[in-house]
Structure formats: structure tokens, C-alpha cells
Amino acid sequence: MSFSRNKNTWSLFLLILAGVVLGGFIGSLAEGLTYLNWLNYGQSFGFESPIVLNLGILVLTFGLNIKITIAGIIGVILAIMIYRTL
């Protein structure tokens, strides 16, 4: 029973991830079109510049920037709707 639930959780996660990626891609394509440029409207948040940790031998760079757009939200909603029909 827990195996099927775990499998369903991973499939939902992958579908949502695919929805975000495809939605972001469609939003960036629609950026140049005047009647669809609202799809690329959104908010970006995260680190402006990456955090660098220099340990002498090893240099670690940490950075995170997330951009949420209308197209990405639509992609997530479609992914959840597809998951519910499966």
C-alpha cells in the first residue's frame, strides 16, 4: 500500500515539475507577442548575487532564483488536473 502511495507522490511531483518547466517555456515564448505577453508577467525572488564560500581548496557557490509567472501557474494547474484524471 505504501509503495503505490509513494509512486503516486513521485508522479505528481514530476507532473508539477513538467508543468512549471513547460509553463515557463511557453511564457518566455509569448513574451514577444503583444496579445500574449501577460503570460510572462510574474514575480522573481531569491539571491541577487550568489553566496560564495571559499575554503581554500574548495569553493562553494550557493544561489537560488525563482520566477513565478502566470504561464507557470497555468502549467501547474494543468499538471494537477492531468494527475487527477490518471
List the helices and strands and how they pair.
Layout: H1 2-29, E1 42-46, E2 51-54, E3 59-62, E4 65-69, H2 70-85
Antiparallel strand pairs: 1-4, 2-3
Helix pairs in contact: 1-2
Tally of alpha and pi helices? 2
The fraction of residues in strands falls at: 15-25%
Low-confidence stretches: none
Structural domain count? 1
Shape: flat
Reading the helices and strands in chain order gives HEEEEH
Multimeric state of these chains? single chain
Helical residue percent? 40-55%
Describe this entry's structure for a reader.
This protein has 86 residues and is an alpha+beta fold. The protein has one domain. It has 2 helices and 4 strands; from the N terminus they run H-E-E-E-E-H. Strands 1-4 form a two-stranded antiparallel sheet. The protein starts with a helix and ends with a helix. 12% of the residues are buried.
Entry keywords:
86 residues; alpha+beta; two-stranded antiparallel ribbon; two-stranded antiparallel sheet; 2 helices; 4 strands; 51% helix; 21% strand; flat; DUF4321; transmembrane helix; transmembrane
What's a quick, concise take on this entry?
Helix content is 51%, strand content 21%.
